[in-house]
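Hello,

Our lab assistant flagged a job as stuck in the queue for most of the afternoon. It eventually completed. Since we weren't sure the result was trustworthy after the delay, we are filing this so someone can double-check. Below is the sequence as submitted and the structure that was eventually returned. Let us know if re-running is recommended.
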Amino acid sequence: MLSRLTRPQFLAVCGLPVVGLLATAVFAPLPFSVAQPGLTADVLGKSRGASVITIKGAPTHETSGQLRMTTIEATGPDARVQLGDVLSGWFDTDRAVMPRDAVYPSGDDVSEIEEYNQEQMEESQDSATAAALDYLRLDERNVDVQLRLEDVGGPSAGLLFSLGIVDKLGAGDLTGGRVVAGTGTITTGGEVGAVGGVPLKTQAARRDGATVFLVPKAECSDARAELPEGLRLIPVTTLKGAIDSLEALESGRGDVPAC
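-- returned structure --
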């Protein structure tokens, strides 16, 4: 024979599964990564004592200012990201919650991820070199360009590598003495592609002194959403467009596009 439960007893009994589910949701690992602004590096400068860009077979000139590629730092593929991390990251402008698959598309194995990112970086460097030399109408067979940047992987530095090569080999001074930062993939034909994580990259750029940020045009709205004060956005779709914009900014003549 079943005894009749009072209302408080009934709620207490029924509430136990709900509490259990909430506890599971709070402490269970979730398929997300929490990212924050990462390092930036001047491609016109040095990395661990060695020049990021080394050129042989063609005359180069001294450059002024900086061209800083930008990164994000994310929790590792095996990190236990829980609901509390997601909620705090959602409301914190210095952090962002991203699907783990978007951050680590090659899987969860750390060694495989490192290998994938290195391959992406090498392909990006090859494309950046080809795009820059094509823009300058120089023969790749006669000009030897070596790119070296430690502790960075992926393809998102492609645009900045190309700009650095053009700045060293070209006749003008692209930065005009400014600290220019940016992000974007690049094809051998000089087309700039989107990369993700732009709001965090703008924060990293401003933190490290940049006043100008080159952003793939498709990501303008993302960049504007949490744009740090004092940072000017310039949207780009091609290497030539990025160079034209920087030259117009430096000379004060011509239109400089804005997001």
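-- support follow-up --
The delay was a queue issue, not a problem with the job. The result is valid. The helical segments are 7-27, 83-91, 100-103, 110-136, 158-169, 198-207, 220-225, 239-251. Confidence is low (pLDDT under 50) at residues 5-28.
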